[in-house]
Amino acid sequence: MTTISRTDTSVLGRWWWTVDRWALAAIAAIAFVGVIMILAASPAVAQRLHLDGFYFVRRQFALLLPALALMIGVSLLNPIQVRRLAVLGLGIGVGFLVLTFFHGVEIKGARRWISLGSFSLQPSEFVKPCFAVVSAWMLAEQKKGEGVPGNLISAALFLMLASLLLLQPDLGMAVVVSAIWFAQLFLAGLPIFWVVALVILGVGGIGGAYLMLPHVASRIDRFLDKSAGDSFQVSRSLEAFRNGGLWGRGPGEGMVKDVIPDVHADFIFAVAGEEYGLFVCLLIVGLFAFVVVRGLLRLRSDSNLFVILASTGLLVQFGLQAFINMASSLHLMPTKGMTLPFISYGGSSLLALALGVGMMLSLTRRRVGQGAGS
Amino acid sequence: MTTLTAFRPRVPPPVAPPPSRAVRLEGAAKQVIESSRGRLTLAAGVFAIAFAVVGMRLVDLALSKPAHDAREIELPRANDSAGYAADRADIVDRTGALVATSVPTASLYADPRDILDPHEAVAKLQTVLPDIKGENLEARLSAEGRSFVWIKRNLTPRQQYEINRLGIPGFYFQREDKRIYPHGALMAHVVGFADVDGKGLGGVEQAIESKIKGSQTAVELSIDLRLQHIVRQELQAAISEFSAIGGGGLIMDVRTGELLAMVSLPDFDPNAPGSAPADNRFNRNTLGLYEMGSTFKTFAIAMALDAGTATMRSSYDAREPIKISRFAINDDHAQKRWLTVPEVFKHSSNIGAAKIALEVGAEGQKAFMRKLGMLDPVQLELPELGKPKYPRDWRPINVMTISFGHGLSVTPIHLASGVATVVNGGILHPPTLIKRKEGEPIPGRQVLKTSTSDNMRRLMRLVVEDGTGKKSEAPGYWIGGKTGTAEKVSRGGYKKSARLSSFVAAFPIHDPRYAIVIMVDEPKGTKKTYGFATGGWVAAPVVQRVVQRMGPLVGLPPVDETPEIRRLLSVDSQPQPKEKSVAAR
Lengths: 374, 585
Prior knowledge:
The complex is a heterodimer of chains A (374) and B (585).
Chain A: H1 11-18, H2 21-48, H3 55-75, H4 79-103, E1 104-107, E2 110-116, E3 119-121, H5 123-144, H6 150-167, H7 171-187, H8 192-212, H9 214-224, H10 232-244, H11 268-298, H12 305-329, H13 347-363
Antiparallel strand pairs in A: 1-2, 2-3
Chain B: H1 21-63, E1 91-92, E2 98-110, H2 118-128, H3 134-142, E3 149-155, H4 157-166, E4 171-180, H5 188-191, H6 203-207, H7 209-212, E5 219-220, H8 225-241, E6 246-253, E7 259-265, E8 290-291, H9 297-307, E9 314-317, E10 322-324, E11 327-329, E12 338-340, H10 341-346, H11 350-371, H12 396-403, E13 409-410, H13 412-423, E14 427-428, E15 445-446, H14 450-466, E16 480-490, E17 493-507, E18 514-521, H15 535-553, H16 563-569, E19 576-577
Parallel strand pairs in B: 1-5, 9-19
Antiparallel strand pairs in B: 1-2, 2-3, 2-4, 6-7, 6-18, 8-13, 9-12, 10-11, 14-15, 16-17, 17-18
Helix pairs in contact in B: 2-3, 8-15, 9-11, 9-14, 11-12
């Protein structure tokens, strides 16, 4: 590898010396683990679906390089370009989101997908990071006091998005988007009274979902009462972690991938636990924790409110998604289909995460001076 | 691509801006940024805790014991018969030939939790076990919450090998004993059978379960497989010849009460007891209750001789049928004259037997029958034991009918035991299916006078030499016997066409070793027998052939008559007519 000189002032040279290389390395490591896990988990699923064994592997690998290119490309942008990209992305994303209600492909009881030739696209995945950036922009604008009703616009965007997601219905996404927005409001100096009020509202919202959405109710019931009905996937998943033990049963020796239907997406963590054991799992958790916690702590030294809010939103999305996926596999919470970033199979998820992380890397690049956001 | 200008930091204004609204607000933004630092720390802390919880949960799960570790598959061990302890003892015949044994086999079961694809697994399995019911098994394998499903018990080693080779996860083998009956149907009613779980469900297997289960000491039966085979073959031939519905055959050692052969036909293969009709499991010899007919005259005369109411020289008026209320007792082979006791027996005179019995009376007859074991179930090592049926109110009419074998239902075992007692000197040895140990005292009690037994042997020889049982004669073997042809009871009366033809015999009759009972159920006469299907035509020839075949085997080859034999068998039949009333007493 050619070394890049400190004095290199080319685009890549500047990028290399300003980007958060530790975060980049952690993301690369997660993506590498993802490659191995897709190889481990997806052939079993493909065979069960009477597809070619490497069907999912090929599809995922085909998107991996474009995704990395997207991530790095986006991270080359400056904050203003990121903002523009986010506005554009949010507009298109919401457009597609609305389109799902008319031309969506219904999969397992929800309309979340738009069919684009051989690929189907999940607009909500792309909407999340874009929303985080746009919302951060608006909240930062409000604080600037230049007459932009940022808070209002942000709230309106949030309510629209949350409603659209609940209508699909996609409670998981709605929860993530809510968490993003809430974290941003929190950091934007929301008074503690409102923080508490919103927490209560959030809890009330989940309670409402429990009462209004039967599949949510059954998920939660099954989580709370192990004996009630089908907890097949979760009990198999827990068995996988137990069978894996400290060192795992070895690559390819797992059984859980053969019994859980969407193991290459929602339960890929269980495959890791069974075949590679506790230490690899802890490594994965550690990588995610490293990216999120370090990212958040690093933002403390930043002085651009837009950057702080947008990055926080993106990190919260990234971290929350990882947490929900792993916690579901470990029966720490009701099962919620959510991808493990850069590890689970899923084209939309991969590209959208690349977009989000790219934005985050771009925003957290070291900038000289403070003016980028103004 | 982006332009580098975008990255150029904005140059701060060279002069300090005048204090304005914007500056105040910028101060507000700064304040927000200041406060956000603490809140960022808090958010980072929340995430750190969340990921730490995930990590702890991982550690907790990884260190907990696996619910089911598929790595510890129990491999079936090599079947080392030397060190192998079966769960049921072997059963052997009196010569040591194996009758029932347990062989270790592999039984196939599944743990549905480990089955990846029930449909595929079943489809593969059917290539080795084509008789598996696919849909049924698939349903059972797909059922959630089950961890154990039997698929097939007692596989052959080849099947086990083939299934192993399929390599289907979730299929396991369990070592199980399979009960094997090498002789199949031959010993069916004696040994019975054990179910797939090794529990006796019939015959000796059930009756002495406690001695067989968990024991390593072989159970020795009294049966001699060679004799068993002879009886079964000859009986089967007679059943076929006379289109009978079944039959029974017994050989008993008259000196010990041991049963050397016990055949009930039709029978079944204890290796697959379900493959024959359930009726075939019915043991005619021990569970079947029959009115035995004229063979019972043996006991009527033995009773009278023993009681002293008749002697060998007593004679009875058999000129007219006995009419009692609405019944009439006739003779089948009517001589229409006065008959001595030997003649009554030889010609099987119902009238004579009835009159002989009447002299003993109801009380005496009942006591005699009880003494001979005819009124109680036989104590035998079988669960299938019939309880004799006899009149509660034992009236003269019963005395007369019972004298020629009607009105009292017993099993063929009763008959064999009674005959053995009559010929062996009058000692009743309880019948048994278990070989008596050498040197141990043989249980028995004297129920008849020795002299009675001596005379009864002479009478039985007479039947074969010059009576209804001539067709059983096997020269040199010295068979003695008595025929019996009973009309079977059907609804409300006796059926002429449905008969039980039997023959009881003992040989060599001058010094009896073996008692034989052959009974053929509902034989039909043939052209060869001129349409007759009586005991003399149907059962007696079976006895003849059985004796001819078994004699040499048991060390009793045919012998010429010796003065000793002549003395033992000579009948002093000088008639001494008695003028006795036969009116009912």
